[in-house]
Known about the structure:
By secondary structure, the protein is of the alpha/beta class.
Amino acid sequence: MTAKTLMTVTAALLSILLAAGAVAKDSLPSKTHDGLVLMKNTKLRAVYLKPGASLDEYDKVFLVDCYVAFKKNWQREQNDQTMDLQNRVTDQDMKNIREHLAKEFNKVFTEVLSTKGGHEIVKTAGTGVLIVRPAIVNLEITAPDTLSSGFNMTFSSDAGQMTLYMELYDGKTGDIIARIIDPEAMGNDVLEMRDSVTNAADAERVLKRWASILNDHLAAVAKNSGG
């Protein structure tokens, strides 16, 4: 899937979730355009699964590089609130943040799936390989890390928010198995000073939660199948 196609599909699904807000999962579409069915009682906002699909045949994981996209107009809105020109968010700042978050995603998911889950992480598709194609979209950061040397304090109860958009594919056929969407706030609801360090810590907690949920599900499937 190309980045353009990914964003087109993501935008359509996100529009439903953002419009629904905290509405119950029953209010979400029960079926997607490509035949995936909404699962009940999951820890994530929306999990769609291919009918009859099973994850018990996969003992390897191919983790595709994570795609990261900011919320539309985030940079402009952020800079409109910044009086000091030295603290304005530049295009290079955004590029650095996207690259750092993508690398952190890969690091966290690799550690959790390989160390805790015992899954072999591979770089090619094939039989027994589960392809995980992740994206972080709708990214907002309360106190972005810029290249400015100025001193600027920002206090907030959260570091911002981001949405996980992840698709799982069969490594042999290329067929889609599942689609996952989960908007999350980054923070602990405690008012504190925000900077690049606290932002990174809050983002890591969210990434570990997502990775652990996927790992736990894969482990449960393997256990139930006798693996």
